[in-house]
Design brief:
alpha+beta; 10 strands; globular; single chain; 4 helices
Length: 254
């Protein structure tokens, strides 16, 4: 990974005056702790082939959020399973014991595993590997915020590295609502202050949203604004992911 400068993928440049380093409710005059603009994502780094024993794998680093995903298969489905003309997908998301500031304080791993399955199942061409199963194992090495979004993007890259046929790469970005402000790709501290969150997952080349997850109370204009911010960022993130597939790793300043 040495020698590669992480890539940023801001939806659009914004200008604003900033004073406070700590967010306060309804305060529109504050600075993010890492110095980013409200609509600027963290530097992103991707690397494929991170696990030699896997059919495909990928490593992703977004600021302090670090994830590794391994893909195994397609393998023959267990005899106990009913015959199926389409392939099966198993997904598992887990956290290392040292991934969070407080030991064992990881997010709901079962919920994340289920959400990852739903997202990837719609992007994979399951008919290309009938009677077989593909296993996706995602491990959060360090939790720095927006964990599930990073896991989804990294898993998509790992599947492509494994040669699994897909309709398109899947990119995911989230935003947090803090008072009147929407901030993209929030870190852990920002997530702890958020009034609500919106995570959008899409297949950028097809301009197709595969999943939209919203928590908290959102007005229709805010939802539309959040979705547009995420779609713009997903398109740029997908470009970085495609470039990564061309070489061993990718991370050049945009």
């Amino acid at each position: 990974m040495a020698g590669a400068t992480p890539t940023t993928y801001s939806p659009s440049p914004t200008t604003r005056k900033s004073k406070s380093l700590i967010f306060r409710n309804d305060d529109v005059d504050w600075v993010r702790t890492d110095g980013r603009d409200f609509h600027q994502c963290r530097p992103a780094f991707f690397k494929t082939g991170a696990v030699n024993a896997a059919a495909g794998s990928a490593y992703a680093e977004f600021g302090n959020t670090k994830v590794i995903v391994s893909v195994f298969g397609p393998r023959e489905s267990k005899k106990a399973m009913l015959y199926s003309d389409i392939g099966r997908l198993n997904c598992n998301v887990s956290y290392t014991t040292f991934s969070t500031p407080v030991c064992g304080q990881g997010s709901d791993q079962k919920e994340f595993s289920s959400m990852l399955h739903k997202v990837l199942e719609g992007a994979i061409i399951l008919e290309t590997f009938p009677k077989t199963t593909v296993d996706v194992f995602a491990l959060v090495l360090e939790s720095g915020g927006s964990d599930l979004s990073v896991v989804i993007s990294c898993a998509s890259l790992a599947l492509a590295d494994a040669g699994i046929m897909m309709y398109d790469l899947v990119a995911s970005v989230s935003v947090s609502c803090l008072g009147k402000i929407l901030v993209i790709d929030p870190v852990l501290e920002e997530e702890s202050y958020q009034d609500g969150s919106l995570m959008l997952t899409c297949m950028p080349s097809r301009y197709e949203v595969t999943q939209l997850t919203i928590t908290g109370e959102w007005s229709t204009p805010k939802v539309n604004e959040g979705m547009q911010i995420c779609l713009d960022a997903c398109a740029k993130l997908a470009t970085i992911m495609r470039e990564c597939l061309k070489g061993p790793d990718f991370g050049l300043e945009e």
